[in-house]
Amino acid sequence: MPLERQLLTDAELWWQADFLPAPVAQHWYALLQEQVNWQQLPIRMFGRVLLQPRLLCWYGEASYTYSKLTLPATPWPAWLLPLKQQVEQAVGASFNGVLLNYYRDGQDSMGWHSDDEPELGRDPMIASVSLGAARRFTLKHKQQPLKHELLLTEGSLLVMAGYMQHHWLHALPKMARVQDGRINLTFRQIIFGS
Predict the structure, then answer these.
(1) 4-6 and 12-16: which strand pairing?
(2) Confidence band, pLDDT 50/70/90 cuts, at residue 179
(3) How many CA atoms lie within 13 A of 169 on its CB side?
């Protein structure tokens, strides 16, 4: 099944539910759990320093900064390159960094934000692969009363592009009934010297 466009105002959002077959997605989930050096890092929010409600890791040819937190450049592990290449082929773009997020259960989450850091460029493309438990992905327009929601299932691929980050916020809210973990890999192109 090819990528299917979601009809959103002022945005390009593409989705493929079955990007990875279940056994392949499960293999990647187990490998990432075991091989990645997961960290829970502090972040400043509303004048307070809090631990982010998820674990993360950054692999990339350059450092990446968001919310005043800088993740240093870390070489890509060779075992991850086949998945990177598969994503690049599917979306027709190249990526030089990936932010991995590990939501240990439904209490881990990501608040409202846009991926609009300067080093991502003006109209970034971000390709996100979901592994493990299905989670709600919510979006809301910054200027209009528009909302959209997807259930990010195991093995799915979500692509945000075009003017998406200028006009929309997105979040991964808590889901109290979810007991299992979810890992997502958000592939990005970092612009050097930005």
Answers:
(1) antiparallel
(2) very high
(3) 14
